[in-house]
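Our preliminary data section would be incomplete without showing what the modeling component actually yields. Below, a chain of 164 amino acids is followed by its predicted structure, encoded as C-alpha cells that our downstream tools consume directly.
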Amino acid sequence: MAKQRFRDVKQGRIRPVETKKKRSASTPTDLPATLRQRFKAFITDSFMILMPLMYIVFYLVFDGREGFAQHKLLGWLYILIPYILITALFLAKSGQTPGMRAYEIRTVDCRSGKPPSIGASLLRQLLGVWDFFLFTWILQFFRRDHRTPHEILSGTCLLQEPSR
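Predicted structure:
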C-alpha cells in the first residue's frame, strides 16, 4: 500500500488509514487485579458484609456464643447463605462488591467483558466458599492472571478499573 499524503487525506481525495481502535474499558484483555487488591477487597467485604451477618446470627438468632456453639453447622449456614446471596446480587448488579469498589477492581464475564449474570455470580460465590475451605485459592499464586478455580469454573475475571 502506498504511503498516504497528508494533502490528499485533508482534501478528501482518499480516506485515512484506520489506526488501531482504542480498547473499550470492559474488554477482557484489561489488566487482571493484583493479589494485593484482591486481598484488600476481601478483607473490606468481610468487615462490611460478613461481620454484621455474624453478629445477627450470634446474638439475635442463637442468643449468644453458647447457643451458636451448640448449633455450629446451622449457624454457619445462616451466615454463609445470606453472604453468598448478598455478594452475588452486588456482582450481578454492578460487577463490584463494596470492597471491590474501594480498591478499583471489578468482576466481569471473561467472554463478553460485561458484569456477570445472576446465575454466574451465584455460581461464582458458591464455588468461592468451596474454594476457600479446600484451600484451592492458593492456585492464584501460580497463575499469571491470578484466577482462582471458582473464577475459572464460573467464567469470570477480576480486572482493574481503568484510571479516571
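Confidence is low (pLDDT under 50) at residues 20-28. The beta strands are 105-109, 156-160. Preliminary results of this kind motivate Aim 1 of the renewal.
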